[in-house]
Amino acid sequence: MIFYTPDINFTRDNFASLRLCEVKSSPAKSQSRKVKNEQSLTAESINENQYYTLNGEESAHAVRVLRLNAGDEVTLVDGRGGRYRAKIVGAHHKHCEVAILDHQAEYGRRPYRLHIGIAPTKNMDRFEWFIEKATEIGIDEITPLLCERSERKHVNTERLQRVMIAAMKQSEKAYLPLLNEMTPFEKWLKMPKSAYRYIAHCNDGDRQTLKTAYQAGWDAVIAIGPEGDFSMQEVKQALDDGFKSITLGTSRLRTETAGVVACHSVYFVNG
Predict the structure, then answer these.
(1) 191 lies in which domain range?
(2) Are strands 244-247 and 114-118 parallel, antiparallel or unpaired?
(3) Structurally, how many domains does the chain consist of?
(4) Is residue 192 domain-shared with residue 82, that is, in the same domain?
(5) Global pTM?
(6) Distances in Å between the alpha carbon of 69 and those of 91, 95, 115?
(7) Three-state secondary structure call for residue 163
(8) What are the tens digits of pLDDT across the range 67-104?
């Protein structure tokens, strides 16, 4: 279960999520018990040999809903590659305190960086599905794009952030992707990008498959257009700015499907 705390800013510097994948009982208990529920928590920073107090809502869920007690061990991830083993030392429903036991840095770090710029779909459920699946597969940055043929001109980044957090926890990752605000396509093209750049479109012309154009270990930026595809002018602008035309296969894909295929293709090439 995911908690959202509006009075705390979920940033890469102060976000931590608590994934209760397995809870080890204290010595006084006869056997360990597994907890299927998941939750997220916030902390200003995480270091070994430190104590943290969960906020009221999270404490209530941990103690009253999941019925955790002092001595139970939990796993935390900070969204920046840190994975921590912690133990509850004070099980109070208003201020549950945990102690950090040890940690692993750069947990699950990939040998490449992937940034996908994608036009949100008119149906937000479909775009949220892309956000969820891309996070589960592995992605570093997502930029919602405002294109010439875009049917959706605004997105709720706060809601999308919650989807990302849930997907990060579910897939047992320690890195939370960076989610940017909606950005006009022309402006996005001009932003500095020290990576190999590709634009997927259905227009006629010479296009390589992504698996041919991309090589393992490369940082990549991939542009995915709206449901009506990129316009000819937008494709020309991208090519003029150093992007390469690619195809994601012989089938005509929905926007959200194209985004997932691009994400998985890069993951697959990297083995």
Answers:
(1) 114-269
(2) unpaired
(3) 2
(4) no
(5) 0.81
(6) 5, 13, 41
(7) helix
(8) 889 989 877 788 888 888 888 898 999 988 888 888 88
